[in-house]
Amino acid sequence: MTSFTLVLSVIAASLAMALPPPAQAKAADDEDALYLKRFESNTKSTGLETYDPLEDVPGAPDAAPLAVANDVNWLISPEAIGKARAYAEANRSKALLIWRGGQLQSADYFGGTAPDTQIVSRSLAKPLTAIAIGRAIKLGFIKSLDQKVVDFIPEWRHTGKATMLVRHLLDMRSGLLAQGVSMDPANVWNRAYLHPRHEDVLIHDYPLSNPPGSRYDYSNATSELVALVIERATKRRYAQFLSEEVFKPLGAHGGRIWVNRPQGLAHSGCCILLPAETWLRLAILLINDGKIDGRELLPTGYVAKMRTPTAENPYYGLGVYVAGTYTQRRGYANPALSFPKVLHGAPYRAADLFLFDGNANQVVYIVPSLNLIILRVGDPPPRDPEWDNAVLPNLIMDGIRLRPGEVMPNPQPAQ
Fold this sequence. Notes:
With 415 residues, the chain is an alpha+beta fold. Helices cover 33% and strands 13% of the residues. Helix 3 (78-90) packs antiparallel against helix 12 (391-398) and helix 6 runs antiparallel to helix 7 (198-205).
């Protein structure tokens, strides 16, 4: 063989090695086709009509519904509950659950929804990511909120993302590109949500806009990274971890979660389907400072950290929104931006109120001072009259029946 022939052979061999095997190339083509199918479905409506595939998230095998108080034990006036029920029903709700003092005061389901109906959570999933991280810290899989994310995503070493902390995935200060909307299938927002290998997009393609910790910017991609961190930290699938370490200890029903492909990565920032009462049990865990039946599921003081806002957004803690100082309109985006904002027609009656708040005005209000939780899940309310985020909690708090030694909390302070 001449030296020239040898060089050609080496080049040919190198090119052959650089090209993916036919099976891998076909798989990539199939995934790209699936991505475009999802993209087309997502842009034709207000979102994906179905999540596919779904992975089971088993709940407690002995999960039973929470008992509803009888009229002797009511801690809220029937008139207040009736007004709240009417407001929820008029606003396309699927469930309204009101819990106080250790018991359900009222449980209403609308439009054929039942206690075991799995509700599409949307961004109610984000507080769940904070609970999952807290549980992983309690179990020692994650050192603390201040551990660097690069310990779990080493692909980010020697990049601007290397200083990102675990807490930044929960308080929306990751520095990653803020959430937005695009009709371009090549846009990273769409690929990070819809691609069958969205973890690769999150790791390699999703851009950093600001130094981590320096700015609040709501981003689904930020929350989606929690599933990856949990899986790499615990060596368990995200669904398995939620099942074994959160839902089963709570005695809660499980559900299903969207994964990007069979045995792929779960979507932790959205897209988990759970019965309404499971969301209530998660709120009960928080109102009880991370304990259930005397067992500490979350680290001491962790719930207080969840409820503590940052300087970059005084209305957002770790996956939850907080009352803060009253302002008539507030939204999910950076407070300085003019994105759509939700009406708050009056200050909350309790300054210590905090809440889960997801798309379609799905809300779980938690008021520790009154041992009170109010949950509303369902479809997007009508545009007219406009949904008011303060109505349900204030209606119920106006009807509180105080027990001996109880006092009404201080209201949300005005500006």
